[in-house]
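[09:14] KT: can someone run the structure on this one? pasting the chain below
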Amino acid sequence: MNTYRILIIDQDNSSIAHLKDNLRTIGHRVVGIAKNAPQAVRMYRRTRADFALIGLDAESAVDRLQLGTLFKKENIPFSYVINQLTPKLLTAANRTQPHSYISRPCRIGDLSASIAIAMHARQPATDTSQHIFIDKSESIQIDDILFIQAEHVYTRIFLSNGRSILQRQSLKTILDRLPSKTFIQSHRSYVVPIEKVEHMKGAYLSIQQHCIPVSRNRRKMVQQCLKERAKIGMA
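[09:31] RB: done, structure tokens below
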């Protein structure tokens, strides 16, 4: 899973503490905590956070909706963290086009999926015919990768021609060199190219004759990525 820098905007200390704990659990880094829109703007300009979580309720509505409008104009991905919204407030919030709404208390799965899908959608399309160097003298086509599996201190890359390549690199190191528009981490030990997935059944993905596990906290994100792929295919 990629690590992203997160900016939190909220005045509820218990909500902030809960968000920080969950973000730390899923491997993201909180780079700032702001109480209002002006403070959030200053923090964003200083940190250039990848994603923002904006607490939204009736008391903070004017301040937070102004911030959402600004983030929309700046193309900064964000989600609203909410309790309950009146129909009027929901209509106003929808105009700012947040990536999603996350209900308090935020569950790890919802939080992880929301951030992953937003960042996945934000990446520009990448030419999958490009190569990746696996050592100083050999490269492989990214489009030839079936899946990647961590094996202790090594990582094994499985290719469509039946070959596999063992690398003394971490799974994260290799994942960071691959286009995030194309590859997702389904499990702490597995990375898959979303276009190669034939179907998902229960907690497993099928790629040719291989069954790739999907961890519980990544299941919703993987399902959403497959849905997004299906929508693109039907367009």
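[09:33] KT: thanks! Residues 69 and 181 are 26 Å apart (CA to CA).
[09:34] RB: yep, looked fine to me
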